[in-house]
Amino acid sequence: MEPAASMGRCAGGEVPNAGTALSQREPASTGMKQALREPLGAQLLVRELCEEARRFRFDVAPNPCVGAAVLSDDGSVVSRGFHEHWGGPHAELAALEAAAKSGVAKERWTTLVVTL
After folding, report:
1. Which of 8-17, 20-29, 56-65 holds the top average pLDDT?
2. CA 116 to CA 30: how far, in whole Å?
3. Pairing of strands 67-72, 109-114
């Protein structure tokens, strides 16, 4: 297992649906909600965010690949967002805007996970 500090690197691979609310995406892996409460589950989420953010590496250069996720109080992923182009909105803002469109009450948003 890699140390948590190294999880911020952008890894290879592509995952569709960047910047969309969870309700608009395919269902997350079975048990992901529960897994996010464990350190390994959080590392897996960060790894997924890095892989998804890497799709925009040529559009954001010289900036880093950044992904973000809003989590609810039960540990489920409400939304994800990414820094998609140079000079564009940060990943955090994209994730929060997608969360606002998700239908999940803002009061339930408890955590913002950001890769960098």
Report:
1. 56-65
2. 27
3. antiparallel
Closest by CA to 66, choosing from 77, 79, 56, 58, is 56
Nearest residue to 92 via CA among 104, 80, 102: 80
Q: What is the pLDDT of residues 66-112, one digit of tens each?
A: 999 999 999 899 999 999 999 999 999 999 999 999 999 999 999 99
Mean pLDDT of 26-48: 66
Rounded Cα distance between 57 and 34, Å, is 31
CA 94/CA 83 separation, integer angstroms:
8
